[in-house]
Amino acid sequence: MSAKTASAALEAKPAPADKRQSELDRAALEALELDSDEITSVRLDGLALTKIVKHCRDAHPAAASGTLLGMDLGGTLEVSNVFALPNPGRGGDRDEDDDRASRNATRYTSDMVRLLRDVNADANPVGLYQGCFLGAFLNSSVVDGLAAIAGLMEREGASGKGKGVLIVHDLAQSAQGNTSVKAYRLSPSFIEAHRAGKFHTQSLIDHKLTFANVLVEIPVALRNTALLDAFLSSISTPSAPAPSIVPPSTSELLVNPPTAALGPSHTSLNLALEPVLASSLEATLEILEEHAAEAGNVGFQARQLAREKAKAEAYLARKKAENASREAQGLAPLPIEDVNRLFKIPAEPSRLETTLLLGQLDSSARRLAETAAVGAVQLHAARTGAA
């Protein structure tokens, strides 16, 4: 074998070491792939959580909403910052107010993202946060906002469906000493129906949609920075200053700044359950009235659609019978005009609003049941201890 043939054989067949190196490089590239098909968990920064809680408390009794900023890291959504959206004012027409609020929120979000990029801060919208009271939070504005965020993330290169995440903070539970933070994302079947823009009866049946599977709950984990942990430890366990009859100087105040200790919370032992139960029951009844009104509107539209369809079918049957009699007499049949042009057949009513109201009713009823159960246990414990 000549030297030229041997060198050609070596070039054609790579060495085993080179092959192993290429496999390692390929595995490293797959490990560095951060994009995922869906969000499986949320990691919320402590500072972002404090902003959400403060905004919900300041905006009460109005609903607080805002935008989440962060990054998708292999299925775990890292939420590093948030900013609040302007609270829309309610006028006479609810639909016009919702459209105007949606346009204002979109314009405000684009302006804030541009300003955050100018200062080199996190400027990737990854979802929304919503404040609620006594459990009810699902409405058409939240769904449209999540769908818009998911579409924006997919246009920027993210794969999969339903990347937008909704974080919900219940202010009522926070007032009782239990900070409640939950995360949701839209289900794939609901995203397909939302993109098609059809929520009539057959579409709900085809996509197997109910109020229970509009959203999918995902776990939330809280992550604090070292600076925030140090601040929380300083306000929870303050250092007591040494007793002195001389007022502290400025240098001493700078060395040992005054801190206030976090007092113990005894809200779980409070037996004044009547206001909480009354508020929960009132919220449940209000949602039930809204659902009954929306169901009445859908029923009226369905009856109007049935009447128009019956008129069109009667017209077609009459024309077909007339043409059959003319053909029996040997005459040419008359042309049948377009039914849609003669009769104004309306579109089938959308059942999206009724489905979302059923979701609100279910959440409010669950919250009412939890409050009543806790109250029953507390009252039983108090009576047992007193006896």
TrEMBL record:
Q: Where are the transmembrane segments?
A: none
Which UniProt key words apply to this protein?
Answer: Cytoplasm, Initiation factor, Protein biosynthesis
Function of the molecule: Component of the eukaryotic translation initiation factor 3 (eIF-3) complex, which is involved in protein synthesis of a specialized repertoire of mRNAs and, together with other initiation factors, stimulates binding of mRNA and methionyl-tRNAi to the 40S ribosome. The eIF-3 complex specifically targets and initiates translation of a subset of mRNAs involved in cell proliferation.
PANTHER family in alphabetical order: EUKARYOTIC TRANSLATION INITIATION FACTOR 3 -RELATED
Q: What family is this protein classified in?
A: Belongs to the eIF-3 subunit H family.
Q: Name one GO cellular component term.
A: eukaryotic 43S preinitiation complex
Which named protein is this?
Answer: Eukaryotic translation initiation factor 3 subunit H
PROSITE patterns from the entry?
Answer: MPN
Q: Which residues form the MPN domain?
A: 42-190
A GO biological process held by the record: formation of cytoplasmic translation initiation complex
Q: Which residue windows does the record flag with biased composition (Low complexity)?
A: 1-15
Output the InterPro entries linked to this UniProt entry: eIF3h (IPR027524), eIF3h_C (IPR045810), JAMM/MPN+_dom (IPR000555), JAMM_MPN+_peptidase_M67A (IPR050242), MPN (IPR037518)
Region Disordered: start and end of each range? 1-22, 84-105
Q: Which GO terms describe its molecular function?
A: metallopeptidase activity; translation initiation factor activity
- Which organism is this protein's natural source? Pseudozyma flocculosa
Assembly and interaction partners: Component of the eukaryotic translation initiation factor 3 (eIF-3) complex.
Which is an annotated Pfam family here?
eIF3h_C
The listed locations are: Cytoplasm
Keyword match DNA damage: no
